[in-house]
Amino acid sequence: MAVKALSVQQPWAHLITIGAKDIENRSRRTTYRGPIAIHASLRADRDARVPTEQGRAALRTAGDLAFGAIIAVAQLTDSHQCPGKRTCSPWAVPGMWHWRLSEIRALPEPIACTGALGLWTIPPGVQAALADQLGDAEAEAPGDGPDDGAGDGPADPLRSVYAERAALIAYLAGQHPAVIVENDLSAPDMALIYLDTPAGQLSWHLHPHDLHLFDHVARVTAPAGPVWDGHSTDEKYRRLRRLVNGSAGSARHDRPSSPGGP
Ligand SMILES: [Zn+2]
Predict the structure, then answer these.
(1) Is 136 in contact with 148 (CB distance < 8 Å)?
(2) Strands 69-80 and 34-44, how do they pair?
(3) Which DSSP symbol is given to 146?
(4) Are 208 and 260 in contact (CB under 8 A)?
(5) Same domain, 129 and 168
(6) Residue 72 and residue 19 share a domain
(7) Which residues does the annotated region (Disordered) include (predicted)?
(8) CA-to-CA distance for 185 and 103, rounded, in angstroms?
(9) Binning pLDDT at 50, 70 and 90, where does residue 150 land?
(10) 82-97: pLDDT as tens digits
């Protein structure tokens, strides 16, 4: 299934992602209804005037915003113009087409990709990364399609790659303190595994079919359990790299130059 996306400048993309901004203002209408990915553009809207105190407060504590990445998914449920100056939402601009967004789900990890004008279709590689974070069942069969209880079917060539990845994460989880968090709001169908390593937190989504590989890892139900420290996918692999190089943890600036040191 082709997944549509909309590129939105920051800070608006962030305000959509946290559920504050429910209307995206566009000069054109759209007849599309359904799932939509929210992509934060590379360029920021430097003249942004945030219309609500809630939104302004959220931005004060937001930290670094993502640019050039898909950061959330939502449902596009309506596209209309409000008559007159009174609008349907404090976020709606009179005279513009109001694209209503609901069922916002922030992605745990932004997915870097190039945006485009108007509604655009996510390329297959990015779609796979999105499916990885959302759970295959939803990405492939939105709505009331047959559930995946009986198995994924033969169609998904990435399934075996996920299974291999899961086996390696299961090994890592035996080397470092690890917890699996189930029913996370951002991805209710996917469990999240958090590893606490000397290089920092690492996290991955786990496909339900791979959970049997993780019997050695404690499980909790959200909101219990570790909290994502905000690391991006890039940062995660930098941390992994540091673990590989042995430069994380007790070794500070001075790494022992010869083996057998203290
Ligand atoms: Zn409106």
Answers:
(1) yes
(2) antiparallel
(3) P
(4) no
(5) no
(6) yes
(7) 135-157
(8) 11
(9) very low
(10) 998 889 999 999 999 9
Classify residue 80: in a domain, yes or no.
yes
How many angstroms is it from 66 CA to the middle of ligand 1? Answer: 27
pLDDT at position 112 over 70 = yes
Residues 6+ apart with CB under 8 A from 227: none
d(CA 77, ligand 1 centre) in Å: 12
Tell me: do 170 and 125 sit in the same domain. Answer: no
Distance between Cα 27 and ligand 1 center (Å): 13
Q: Do 33 and 133 belong to one domain?
A: yes
pTM here? 0.54
The number of distinct structural domains making up the chain is 2
Q: Which residues surround the ion ligand 1 when the cut-off is CB under 5 Å?
A: 82, 88, 92, 98
pLDDT band at 156, cuts 50/70/90? low
Is residue 58 in some structural domain? yes
User: How many residues are listed for the chain in this entry?
Assistant: 262
What is the DSSP code (8-state) at residue 123?
Answer: P
Quote the domain boundaries for residue 38: 4-140
Give, as one character, the DSSP assignment of residue 213: G
CA distance 169 to 2: 29
Q: What CATH number has the domain bearing residue 115? A: 2.30.130.30
> Which of residues 188 and 67 earns the better pLDDT score?
67
68 CA → ligand 1 middle, Å: 28
